[in-house]
Design goal:
With 126 residues, this protein is α/β, with parallel strands linked by helices. The chain is 38% helix and 13% strand.
Length: 126
């Protein structure tokens, strides 16, 4: 109990512990969800599009390409996730461009596994 404790548990930290803790929290600044730091590839592609860094052979343009990009249309064949939709909402706010998201469906884990199941004939399981 109380006789074995040595004062304040957190006040007696040495300099090494403080440095490690400080670096850990410094690396998490600006992270909305510390448990999920994944960023969809969509984010990097859209940011590169706004900065005119995409190769036209891989990412064709519609219409003339003069000046700043104003509207970006992203369409996912096979569907998009809620995380990708949230990323588009954040990018619409932060980049100052209009991003229109479309897809064949909105995916959740059940829909994703259903697509995988339907991709393989029922007799081909080994």
């Amino acid at each position: 109990g109380q006789n074995a404790r040595k004062g304040d548990l957190f006040a007696d930290q040495n300099i090494t512990t403080k440095n490690i803790t400080g670096k850990l929290f410094k690396g998490l600044k600006g992270v909305e969800n510390v448990y999920s730091q994944h960023s969809p590839l969509l984010k990097q592609i859209v940011e590169d599009c706004v900065k005119n860094r995409l190769r036209p052979a891989s990412f064709p343009l519609l219409g003339s390409h003069e000046g700043k990009v104003k509207t970006i249309v992203v369409f996912f064949v096979g569907g998009f996730t809620y995380e990708e939709a949230f990323t588009v909402q954040q990018l619409n706010t932060s980049l100052g461009v209009q991003i229109i998201l479309g897809g064949t469906s909105t995916l959740n884990s059940r829909a994703f596994f259903d697509q995988i199941e339907h991709s393989f004939p029922s007799g081909s399981q080994e």
